């Protein structure tokens, strides 16, 4: 019997995602969701090298979105990918590091000599609201309390915020 050559071609596709920060350093731990053209949804987690490989997917248009960014980072923008049967499509998910805000709360009073005296106010509660582009405010769920030095620090997504001091916290100290 003569040997026969059989050619097998896959009609399915894969996507290989590399998760990086703004300096292109690889990031582990991102949880991602891929939706293929047939509506199949798959959850992936980037390994210690920042890489995630999908199972076999239907070719066509697919979407990639972040379910959970690595600690200290903001979700990567969603991507639309075109997957070709029999190929692995390369994609890069770029995560932006969250910014930090540092707030010092000081109380100011006049001495008997009429000089201004400022001192740190520990234990003051601060509420943080996001200000949308249209000027409306949105709850962030972030509440801070100043430490012994009157300082509070938080990591926040890029944006505009309104920080308000709970008046009763300050009034109780005077």
What does this structure look like?
- The termini are far apart.
- The protein has one helix spanning 167-171, and strands at residues 14-20, 31-35, 41-45, 51-53, 60-68, 73-74, 79-83, 88-94, 96-97, 99-104, 106-110, 116-120, 125-131, 137-145, 151-156, 160-165.
- By secondary structure, it is an all-beta fold.
- Strand 2 and strand 3 (41-45) form a beta hairpin.
- The protein is elongated and about 110 Å long.
- The longest helix is centred in the C-terminal third of the chain and has 5 residues, at 167-171.
Question: Which structural class matches the secondary elements?
Answer: mainly beta
Q: Strand tally, please?
A: 16
| β-sheet strand percentage | over 45%
Low confidence ranges? none
Overall pLDDT, averaged?
A: 88
Number of helices: 1
Shape: elongated
Helix and strand pattern = EEEEEEEEEEEEEEEEH
Kindly provide the radius of gyration, computed on alpha-carbon positions and rounded to a whole number of angstroms: 26 Å
Quick rundown:
This protein has 174 residues and is mainly β. 3% of the residues lie in helices and 51% in strands.
SSE arrangement:
Layout: E1 14-20, E2 31-35, E3 41-45, E4 51-53, E5 60-68, E6 73-74, E7 79-83, E8 88-94, E9 96-97, E10 99-104, E11 106-110, E12 116-120, E13 125-131, E14 137-145, E15 151-156, E16 160-165, H1 167-171
